[in-house]
UniProtKB/TrEMBL annotation:
Protein name (record): Phospholipid-transporting ATPase
EC number(s) reported in the record: 7.6.2.1
Regions that span the bilayer: 110-127, 133-155, 333-357, 377-402, 942-963, 975-995, 1025-1046, 1086-1105, 1112-1130, 1136-1158
Species per Swiss-Prot/TrEMBL record: Xenotaenia resolanae
InterPro entries given in the database record: ATPase_P-typ_cyto_dom_N, ATPase_P-typ_P_site, ATPase_P-typ_TM_dom_sf, ATPase_P-typ_transduc_dom_A_sf, ATPase_P-type_domA, HAD-like_sf, HAD_sf, P-type_ATPase_IV
Domain of life: Eukaryota
Limits of the P-type ATPase C-terminal domain: 911-1165
Keyword ATP-binding: yes
């Protein structure tokens, strides 16, 4: 398998290791990054203006709330009303309050066309000349619909109120009137000085002033921002650290901060502090961001710079979008179609009435009403009368029924015990009730990596020492075991009890102290690192810059080589119970180019040795020709890679005193180099990191969440494509891609430079072809980018993404034009920045990416994540789902059609912005393949039947109009029209929408192909809509004309002809109720007692209410409202009318039964086939559950993947070598004298 990799040093493209700009990148940053680019030609008449630094417009005065209320910091809100530009610290996510709920909610509900339509109907029904139905037939359903929706909205908003209240009422110490007082988060203001303690959440974006640690060092956990649990360090300025420790000193602090405007950049901050007539530069390392948590720091003090909506975590939230499902959109278009049909039918019947009245009605003396209205005017009134009569074609209860079904489906998700994570007591949570059926139509999933696919936990699994491989289950003698037996660490008092290892032979070698290579191996791991240790209540705790460093040092600790402490120039460890201190002569830290780190130590006996660990690709280049075990170690590395473990090589070199002295002089010169210091240091490091002797290799598992590979495989079988969007490095992202089976060995992997080359080639080809071939809006079928049957994958960095999509070039060009005082010129078709050219480039990229089975975008910003989702939504018209766990995923979660947050972690920002939340990625397959599929099938079946039953009900009026002179008279009793959708036919179809399932959950998971109809939208579309329409037309014909024929020439048992209008209305209504309830019975796949009760109960309710409202007693009380006195009892005592009802119902259902039989026999779907063999498949599932899985996951990959590129930033080497984390500078300040060092 060939894999092309770009050499980042020689490539002309962007640096793969650098996080690209965000939308809020400042102009001066863009100016710096655009050096070396060709400037556009300038006109002589417009000389270039002098470039001035951008104005810094955000000013913060410490301990001075009045300063921020000055007129110069006010902004206009409305007309002459102004408010401060500085946001308060309270957050608000709710929509209503007590005063605005009723008007605002009604306004939102009447934005629905259907509600406005029914309100207009209600107004029409009040007008006597056109009122063909009583006003209450519309008012009662409309009030019920509005009321239920309002109650649901109120419940949702109360939950948001509670969440906002919980956050805003958190407590924090704020310096007020010279003393620290406990205050609520919502009362904090910009410029306040706050005190935070260990494990406190940070309430705002704060400038760190001082802390309890040396040199105001402060450790923070950023799980809320990015899902990572390894600690980051922040550090205050030396001046504030030394002068702002006591309460009195902080109260007198009056610095002025000038900094950048609020923006969404999590990786950059630029500012300046003016204090005591001196200016001090500020950067991101000095800022504590809202949402992070204080760790391993007893207390710290800070100054609030950004509050509330201005904080970076809130700015990264993106715009809250109103999400609607595809079915919602389709349903609205269908309602518009029904409106059009309604108007056309009403107009046709009105014209019919005009001609009828002209020919017959005006000549019939018994129809004379004395109104003197013209024929045309009567036709006009008839039109509005039929609009009222036929209004039930647009079902008023449709929307409220849909809301009830969605609410029920959301509750089923919440109650699903198989999506409950017991370890953290976290159930699944549907945070919205409007998107459930969309879960059954997902085509693309966009996933974060850290905390979403992985646990961000590194575990030392295996190793190779002096050519011998360790890590498989063995006895102390080296015999392989069938059963895993963990090592007992009771012999080591420093051992971490959570550390698991199963190879007893390695432990026996260490304890015997006979294997010198093994001892040297773990000594290296305990010495060569940048981890810092602290004693927490007698327990040794390590703080590592990245989790892999912590895993390696913990492994050494358990094998008897315990890192205890360090100073600026010493490292102390315990070697098998003997404490040893080594003098540190040099610490050569890791960076993304070196991919290795080294430490130079002076042993107690005077020897000088260099220990080095790094990626195998860079270590093997620097090995001595005399080194041993190269081939065996390489074989072990390949085997580790096959098991998706991340590898690292360990080596050493003995250095003479004279060689070290010569190198040390060069090192000191490089350290004080003012020009390109990092490059100078790298050159010096290269001189000593050579002729290394190989000791062995480590294999670390970046622990995936349980079930991730299986989930990805299942979703891929359901034809769902998964893209990983992460801020991690390319190597790390690629490793995880293989670990979770997203990437496989049979895939051809394409990188950024390859993608750019193919897109440029396609672009050139397009430009060379006639312009008529590529007109905007004209889609031409494109050739595949990857011809052949090979499987392809795409790995692209954020820098290449900007390069490919012209994002940064376009912004730089706008900046140059603005500085030149020019306006942007109209688009030139040959200009690469042309809008159409850019759009075609985006389409090309999306087409290429969608041809790949897997796509990984790494080193991308939160904004880029959202942009990638938007591109797929825009150009593929696909249903998308985003899943993440940190604040950097919020924008992506809000942009996708469905947003899923991983809950149960420390960071809950993603969950608060999500539509669905659960604790583990593996629950995604159940959410989509079970709940999503069921919800989609249920909703489609519900809508098809709902439209059918309303067409069948309403169109009886249409046929009746031909026999009533098109007079807008109704075919049923008024109360039947009112209660038909509310009581007589609503419950069975509602329960189908809530409970129906064609297959159980286990079979739905076993056959992911069952998910395809949802993606293709085959169960509900315009074809299904018109089938429902013609089905309704057929049933309405049968329901009207069979009773009509039966009533033409009949004679009752008493010798009278019961062919009156009221008896006819009773028979047609009864036939309709039987037909629709039995029809839904035929379509029900999953029968329960409730379903059976609903069908029989609806029929029973119909007869019970009908006999009541046709009784004489109620007619006496309300004679004008209940006019069908005795009609039901009179008609239904005639046997031939019951025979008429049976014949009508039988003829209505018989064709449907025949069609369903033929369809399932001759053209069965995948679901029909599975259903037919359901018993067999269920037995297979039971047998599979009984079998124990013994086979491991295997791969045959020949290439190795290094683990040593984890950390986003260099480690703690700078802190260690400068001593900033070890001891405090000696100052005359009394407040520091009594403070103990950290170690």
């Amino acid at each position: 398998m060939s894999r092309r990799r770009a050499d980042s040093e020689s490539s002309l493209g962007p640096n793969d290791e650098v996080m690209p700009y965000s939308d809020d990148e400042t102009d001066d940053e863009l100016d710096e990054t655009s050096d070396g680019e060709a400037e556009e030609p300038q006109e002589p008449a417009h000389p270039r203006e002098e470039t001035r630094p951008p104005e810094i417009g955000w000013k913060v005065k410490a301990n001075d709330r009045a300063y921020h209320q000055l007129p110069e910091f006010k902004k206009k809100v409305f007309l002459c009303i102004k408010k401060s530009r500085y946001s308060g610290n309270a957050i608000k996510t709710y929509k209503y309050n007590a005063l605005t709920f009723l008007p605002l909610n009604l306004y939102e509900q009447f934005k629905r066309v259907a509600n406005i339509y029914f309100l207009a109907l209600l107004i029409l029904q009040v007008i006597p000349d056109i009122a063909t139905l009583p006003w209450y037939t519309t008012l009662i359903p409309l009030v019920i619909v509005l009321g239920i929706t309002a109650i649901k909205d109120l419940v949702d908003d109360l939950a948001r109120h509670r969440m906002d209240k919980e956050v805003n009422n958190r407590k924090c110490e704020v310096l007020l009137d010279g003393r620290f007082k406990e205050s609520k988060w919502m009362d904090i203001q910009v410029g306040d000085v706050v005190r935070l303690k260990k494990n406190d959440f940070i309430p705002a974006d704060i400038l760190l002033l001082s802390s309890s640690n040396p040199n105001s060092l402060c450790y923070v956990e950023t799980a809320e921002l990015d899902g990572e649990t390894n600690l980051k360090f922040k550090m205050g300025l030396r001046q504030t650290d030394e002068g702002l420790q006591e309460e009195q000193e902080l109260a007198q602090f009056n610095a002025l901060i000038e900094c950048e405007e609020p923006n969404n950049r999590l990786d950059k901050f630029t500012g300046m502090m003016l204090w005591k007539s001196e200016r001090y530069p500020l950067e991101l390392d000095n800022i504590l961001l809202r949402g992070c948590k204080i760790r391993n720091t007893d207390y710290c003090h800070g100054l609030v710079i950004f509050a509330g909506a201005d904080t970076k975590i809130m700015r990264n939230g993106g715009k809250t979008r109103f999400k609607r499902t595809k079915i919602d959109e389709l349903m609205n278009y269908m309602v518009y179609t029904i409106f059009v049909l309604l108007v056309l039918v009403s107009a046709g019947l009105a014209i019919g009435h005009t001609f009828w009245y002209e020919d017959i009605g005006s000549k019939a003396w018994y129809l004379f009403d004395g109104k003197g209205q013209t024929t045309s005017y009567r036709g006009f009134l008839s039109f509005w009368g039929y609009i009222i009569v036929l209004n039930t074609m647009v079902p008023i209860s449709l929307y409220v029924s849909v809301e009830v079904i969605r609410l029920g489906q959301s509750k089923f998700i919440n109650w699903d015990l198989q999506m409950y994570y017991s370890e953290k007591d976290t159930p699944a949570k549907a945070r919205t009730t409007t998107l459930n059926e969309q879960l059954g139509q997902i085509q693309y999933i966009f996933s974060d990596k850290t905390g979403t696919l992985t646990q961000n936990i590194m575990q030392f699994k295996k190793c190779s020492i002096a050519g011998r491989r360790y890590g498989d289950p063995t006895t102390a003698e080296g015999t392989l075991l069938d059963k895993i037996k963990p090592v007992d660490w009771s012999w080591n008092r420093y051992a971490d009890k959570k550390f698991d290892f199963v190879d007893h032979s390695l432990v026996a070698n260490i304890q015997s102290k006979k294997d010198k290579d093994a001892l040297e191996f773990f000594k290296l791991l305990s010495l060569c690192h940048t981890v810092m240790a602290e004693n927490n209540n007698g327990e040794l705790v390590y703080q590592a810059a990245s989790p892999d460093e912590g895993a390696l040092v913990t492994a050494a600790r358990n094998f008897g080589f315990v890192f205890l402490s360090r100073t600026q120039d010493t490292v102390t460890i315990s070697e098998m119970g003997h404490e040893m201190t080594y003098e540190m002569l040099g610490l050569l830290d890791f960076n993304s180019d070196r991919k290795r780190m080294s430490i130079i130590l002076k042993f107690p006996d005077g020897r000088i040795r260099l220990y080095c660990k790094g990626a195998d690709t860079v270590i093997y280049e620097r090995l001595s020709p005399n080194t041993r075990h190269k081939e065996t170690t390489q074989t072990a590395l390949d085997e580790f890679a096959n098991e998706t473990l991340r590898t690292l090589c360990l080596c050493y070199k003995d250095i003479s005193a004279s060689d070290f002295e010569a190198w040390s002089r060069k090192h000191k010169e490089a350290q004080v180099n003012m020009v390109d210091r990092d490059a100078a240091l790298d050159i010096v490091y290269e001189e000593i990191e050579n002729n290394l002797m190989l000791i062995g290799a480590t294999a670390i598992e970046d622990k995936l969440q349980d079930g991730v590979p299986e989930t990805i495989a299942k979703l891929a079988m359901a034809d769902i494509k998964i893209w990983v969007l992460t801020g991690d490095k390319k190597e790390t992202a690629e490793n995880i891609g293989f670990s979770c089976t997203l990437l496989r060995d049979d895939m051809q992997i394409h990188y950024g430079e390859d993608v750019n080359e193919k897109l440029m080639s396609r672009q050139s080809k397009r430009r060379n072809e006639p312009s008529s071939m590529f007109r905007p809006g004209k889609k031409k079928p494109s050739e595949p980018y990857f011809p052949g049957s090979n499987k392809n994958a795409l790995i692209i960095t954020g820098g290449w993404l900007n390069e490919i999509l012209y994002e940064k070039k376009k912004k730089r060009r706008k900046l140059r034009l603005r500085r030149l005082g020019k306006r942007q010129t109209p688009s030139n078709p040959q200009d690469p920045m042309n809008d159409w050219e850019k759009e075609m480039r985006q389409i090309d990229f999306v087409d290429m990416a969608c041809e790949c089975e897997a796509v990984i975008c790494c080193r991308v910003t939160p904004k880029q994540k959202a942009n990638v989702v938007s591109l797929v939504k825009k150009y593929k018209k696909a249903v998308t789902l985003s899943i993440g766990d940190g604040a950097n995923d919020v924008n992506m979660i809000k942009t996708a059609d469905i947003g899923v947050g991983i809950s149960g972690q420390e960071g809950m920002q993603a969950v608060m912005s999500s539509d669905y939340a659960f604790a583990q990625f593996r629950y995604l397959q159940r959410l989509l393949l079970v709940h999503g599929r069921w919800s989609y099938i249920r909703m489609c079946k519900f809508l098809r039947f709902f439209f059918f039953k309303n067409f069948a009900f309403t169109l009886v009026h249409f046929w009746y109009s031909f026999f009533s002179g098109f007079s807008s008279q109704v075919a049923y009793e008024d109360w039947f029209i009112t209660l038909y959708n509310l009581a007589y036919s609503s419950l069975p179809v509602l329960l189908v929408g809530l409970l129906d399932q064609d297959l159980n959950d286990r079979l739905s998971l076993k056959f992911p192909k069952l998910y395809l109809p949802g993606q293709q939208g085959t169960l509900f579309n315009y074809k299904n809509f018109f089938i429902s329409l013609f089905h309704g037309i057929f049933v309405s014909l049968v329901i009207f004309f069979i009773p009509y024929g039966a009533f033409l020439q009949t004679m009752g048992q008493d010798g009278e002809a019961p062919s009156d209008y009221q008896s006819f209305a009773v028979v047609t209504a009864s036939s309709l109720v039987f037909t629709v309830n039995l029809q839904i019975s035929l379509d029900t796949s999953y029968w329960t007692f409730v379903s059976c009760f609903a069908v029989l109960g609806s029929i029973a309710i119909y007869f019970g209410i009908m006999f009541d409202i046709h009784s004489a007693g109620i007619h006496v009380i309300f004679p004008s409202v209940f006019t069908f006195t005795g009609a039901a009892s009179n008609a239904l005592r005639q046997p031939y009318l019951w025979l008429t009802i049976i014949l009508t119902v039988g003829l209505s259902l018989l064709p449907i039964v025949c069609i369903q039989f033929l369809h399932k026999t001759i053209w069965p779907s995948v679901g029909d086939k599975v259903q037919r063999n359901r018993r067999k498949y269920e037995m297979q599932l039971e047998e599979e559950e009984k079998k124990k899985k013994t086979s491991g996951f295997q791969r045959n990959r020949a290439s190795r993947r290094s683990a040593y590129a984890f950390s986003h930033t260099p480690g703690y080497a700078n802190l260690i070598s400068t001593g900033q984390s070890i001891r405090r500078r000696q100052t005359a300040h009394g407040g520091n004298a009594g403070r103990r060092p950290a170690l």
